[in-house]
Amino acid sequence: MAGISLYPNRTVYVVVRLSSQIFINRVAETGRPEEVVFSPSFVQSYLWKDVMRTLRFALVAAALVVNFANASPTDPRVGAEYTVLAAPQPTQTTGKKIEVVEFFAYHCGACNAFEPTLNAWIKKQGDNIVMRRIPLPFQGASDPEARLFLTLDAMGKLEQYHDRVFRAVHVERKRLMKDNDIIAWAAANGLDKAKFTEAWNSFGVQTKLKRLQAIAEAYKASSTPTVVIDGRYVVSPSTVQQANNIQNVGQLMTATTQTLDALVTKAAQTK
Question: What are the start-end ranges of the H helices in the chain?
Fold first, then answer.
C-alpha cells in the first residue's frame, strides 16, 4: 500500500488548489500568463524555492533567538544589548579616556527616569570617561528644548540648571515647548532675562542648533535615551531590557550600567 493515498479525493483537491495558487503567483510576478509554462517539474521547482525561502527566514530567526538567549548585561553581545556603528564617529578625548555621548530630550520620560542612574554612573567612572550630552532635536532645526540646553551651556549654567529643567517638565508639569514659555521660565527661575535672551538668539547657539540633526543622523540616534561609547558602541535601557526580558525598573537600571561598564572596558582595551 506504500505510495497510495488513503484519501485520493482530498489529495487531488490539495494538489489542484496548490497548483492554481502557484500559477496565480507566477502570473503576478511576470505579468504575462501566456509565458508561464505549467508542468509537474515547474510546480516542484517553485515549491522548492518556497521551502528554501522559508528555511532562510527560520535560520535568521533561530540565530536571533540564540543571540538573545546568550545575552548578559555584564557580557553584552552585539545585536542584543548594543549595536556597533558601521561608521564610527570621531571622539573629543585624548589619552586613555573614553568618550560617552548621551542623546536625550527634556520631555522624554525615559530620560528623566534614567538621569539619576546615569549621573551616579558618571560619578563612579570618574576620570575613566568624558561625558557629553546632546539634545535630540525632535522638532527639527528650531527645536526649543534643544535650544534651551544650548543656551544654558553657552551661559555656563548647564550644570546648575540641567536637572532643574527635568524637574520642571516632569514634576512641576511645565510645558517648555515654546520660545516664550522657556524664556519666561528662565526668568522665573533666577536667570537674567536679558542675558538669557541674548544667548538664546546668539549666532553660536543658532549654529549649534542647526547642526544637531546631522550629528544625530551620523550617530544613527533616533530615540532617547541613547548612549554611544567611544563613538562606536550604541546602547540604551530599552535594548538592555529587550535583550534580558527585564520588567523591574530597578533591575533595568542596574543592568544598563553593567552594560555601560562592560563597553567602557571594551573600548579601553583598544586605547
Answer: 8-30, 40-69, 109-125, 144-154, 158-170, 179-188, 193-200, 203-218, 237-244, 249-268
Q: Give this prediction's pTM.
A: 0.74
Both 116 and 55 in one domain: the answer is no
Angle among Cα 125, 80, 119 to the nearest 5 degrees reads 25
- The β-bridge partners of 132 are 101
C-alpha cell at 229: 561609547
Domain that residue 43 falls in: 8-69
Q: Give the amino acid at 160.
A: Q
* CA dist., res. 196 & res. 186, Å (int): 7
Number of domains in the chain: 2
CA distance 18 to 12: 10
The amino acid present at 186, given as its one-letter code, is A
87: closest CA among 243, 232, 251, 253? 232
Give domain status of residue 215, yes or no. yes
Half-sphere exposure of 41 (CA within 13 A, CB side): 1
Per-residue pLDDT of the chain (271 residues; tens, 9 = 90+): 344 333 344 443 334 444 455 545 554 555 555 554 545 555 455 445 554 454 454 444 444 444 444 567 999 999 999 999 999 999 999 889 999 999 999 999 999 999 999 999 999 999 999 999 999 999 999 999 999 999 999 999 999 999 999 999 999 999 999 999 999 999 999 999 999 999 999 999 999 999 999 999 999 999 999 999 999 999 999 999 999 999 999 999 999 999 999 999 999 999 8
Asked if 168 and 99 sit in the same domain, the reply is: yes
Q: Considering the domain boundaries, does residue 74 fall inside one?
A: no
Tell me the residue type at 94. Answer: T
